Amino acid sequence: MKQSKHVIEIFLQPGDFYFGDTNTRLRTLLGSCVSITMWHPTKLIGGMCHYLLPSRENTSGASLDGRYAKEAMQMFEREIRAAKTHPSEYTVKLFGAGNMFSGIKRNQCDRNNCIDTINACMNISCKNMTAARSLAASHGFVVAAEDLGGNSHRQIIFDINNGNVWVRKPGVIQA
Q1: Hey, CA dihedral for 110, 98, 124, 87, is it positive or negative?
Q2: How many other CB atoms sit within 10 Å of the CB of residue 99?
Q3: Structural domains in the chain?
Q4: What are the pLDDT digits (tens) for 105-157?
Q5: What pLDDT was estimated at residue 103?
Q6: Are 53 and 69 in contact (CB under 8 A)?
Q7: Distances from the Cα of 6 to the Cαs of 3, 23, 161, in angstroms?
Q8: Percent of the chain, pLDDT > 90?
Q9: Per residue, what are the HEC states of the chain?
């Protein structure tokens, strides 16, 4: 992948959120965490979050925190409103939720057989996967692609200029 001299590369740490324009390429590394990417194909704007947990107990008086899926989704909604766009106009993709601890009961939310309630999941990767899918649907987003679950980490590269997302897993590269 050749980098343009005007592209800003940003690495998202766990809990980070970024929303920007065409001159940005976002990267992150995921284990059981999840990244949601959103891209507007006409305005060439978009963003990515890297959340660790579905939600937190007490949020009264606290500012939004990107470590939690529910709040990261609220951050996306704030940016979408500021851009005067609508959720249905975005290409949304979900990544991560790898079961990083193979000794723990296997992830019950695999691609073809996901338990729909977060409380039914046995580990955090499953809870994160379920949260990503249910929050996207409940906020009016249509998920165009996902790479969720499994037992390995993944590196994500998201180019806001064209909406492409690359996923790199140990021994595999997907576009």
Answers
A1: negative
A2: 24
A3: 8-174 (3.30.1330.200)
A4: 544 555 545 554 445 566 899 999 999 999 999 999 999 999 999 989 999 99
A5: 62
A6: yes
A7: 8, 7, 11
A8: 74
A9: CCCCCCCEEEECCCCCEEEECCCEEEEEEECCCEEEEEEECCCCEEEEEEECECCCCCCCCCCCCCCEHHHHHHHHHHHHHHCCCCHHHCEEEEEECCCCCCCCCCCCCECCECCCCHHHCCCHHHHHHHHHHHHHHHCCCCEEEEEECCCCCEEEEEECCCCCEEEEECCEEEC
Q: Give the pLDDT of residue 116.
A: 47
Structure tokens at 98: 């790898």
Reduced 3-state DSSP string for 110-158? ECCECCCCHHHCCCHHHHHHHHHHHHHHHCCCCEEEEEECCCCCEEEEE
For residue 32, is it left (φ>0), alpha (ψ between -120 and 50) or beta?
A: alpha
Is the pLDDT assigned to residue 26 strictly greater than 50?
Answer: yes
Side chain identity at residue 13, one-letter code: Q
Rounded to an integer, what distance in angstroms lies between the CA atom of residue 32 and that of residue 53?
Answer: 9
pLDDT (tens digit, 9 = 90+) per residue, 38-67? 999 999 999 999 999 999 987 777 799 999
Whose tokens are 């695999």? That residue is 110
